[in-house]
Write a structure and sequence with these properties.
Length: about 120
């Protein structure tokens, strides 16, 4: 009983922190809805683990814990893929910004050198 209360409290607390508006894409409603559905399923699986076992057997998986493990593996791989794509995009943006800064610095140095030569 206590472990269920602790697990549900942890799920709700983590969901609260994840739903806070802190990112540029945090306004996407689909992400909030999916997170809400995930939290609901997590809480229900803690309260009624036999439902998860029933669902697993209906799908053809032996136990509910195995179903959770398979789901977590799929979610982890999806997370890794999205992080890889995001990291690649950030690397491209960083490269473009670095090139622009290098060009601006070179232009400023050329202008500074050119104006001192004009004064001579």
């Amino acid at each position: 009983m206590w472990i269920q209360i602790l697990l549900i409290a942890a799920i709700v607390l983590l969901a609260f922190f994840m739903m806070r508006r802190t990112g540029a894409d945090s306004h996407l409603a689909i992400r909030r809805l999916l997170l809400g559905v995930f939290v609901l399923i997590a809480v229900l699986s803690v309260l009624f683990p036999q439902w998860l076992t029933w669902l697993a057997q209906l799908i053809g998986v032996g136990r509910g814990t195995d179903l959770v493990l398979y789901g977590l593996i799929v979610m982890f791989l999806a997370f890794v893929y999205t992080q890889y794509r995001r990291n690649a995009q950030l690397q491209r943006q960083l490269t473009l910004l670095s090139r622009r800064i290098a060009l601006l610095d070179a232009t400023e140095q050329t202008e500074a050198t050119g104006s001192s030569l004009d004064e001579d």
